[in-house]
């Protein structure tokens, strides 16, 4: 983490958390005499553009009023956004927030970092109470089954765009109520 990235992260974390968001990532990109500061935030139940705009104004005020200039004398552009649909699932909260969505995951067969992996495509079902195991609903030939996967065995996972939505069987096995099905676009 660069000095600017670390300083901004420390400075804005209280503001982000006070508004009920998780700070997913801070990226500072310098280009000539300008910087682009990209801040990715997320929270349970998603967010709205108006809320992100308000958060952006609060973050901008905090950065501008910092006792020591973080970005030196450089002008900066601030971007506050939420992760895209293709964001990797790297923490239990990411799996919880993607409940019901399609995912492609590389599952380690031996639990070690250098173990062979198996590519699994399915829909994200329930997480266990301590958020260490997820049910993946796998559908083959019109039949859906649940595969329990320890999150520690997931080498990588990315949500997929799904224009069709879950079938009735997938909704039931994922634990989705009809009114709670999330769009996957």
Automatic annotation (TrEMBL):
Pfam families: RimP_N (PF02576)
Coiled coil: none
Gene3D superfamilies (alphabetical): RimP-like superfamily, N-terminal
Subcellular location field: Cytoplasm
Residue stretches making up the Ribosome maturation factor RimP N-terminal domain: 11-86
Family: Belongs to the RimP family.
Annotated protein name in UniProt: Ribosome maturation factor RimP
């Amino acid at each position: 983490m660069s000095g600017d990235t670390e300083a901004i992260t420390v400075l804005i974390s209280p503001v982000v958390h006070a508004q009920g968001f998780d700070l997913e990532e801070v990226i500072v990109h310098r280009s000539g005499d300008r910087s682009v500061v990209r801040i990715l935030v997320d929270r349970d139940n998603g967010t709205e553009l108006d809320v992100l705009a308000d958060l952006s104004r609060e973050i901008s005020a905090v950065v501008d009023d910092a006792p020591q200039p973080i970005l030196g004398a450089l002008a900066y552009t601030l971007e506050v956004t939420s992760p895209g649909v293709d964001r990797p699932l790297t923490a239990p909260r990411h799996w919880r927030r993607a409940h019901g969505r399609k995912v492609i995951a590389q599952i380690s067969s031996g639990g070690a970092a250098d173990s062979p992996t198996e590519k699994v495509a399915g829909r994200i079902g329930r997480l266990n109470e301590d958020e260490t195991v997820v049910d993946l609903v796998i559908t083959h030939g019109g039949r859906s089954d649940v595969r329990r996967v320890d999150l520690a065995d997931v080498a990588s996972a990315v949500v997929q765009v799904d224009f069709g939505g879950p079938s009735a069987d997938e909704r039931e096995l994922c634990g989705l109520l009809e009114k709670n099905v999330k769009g996957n676009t």
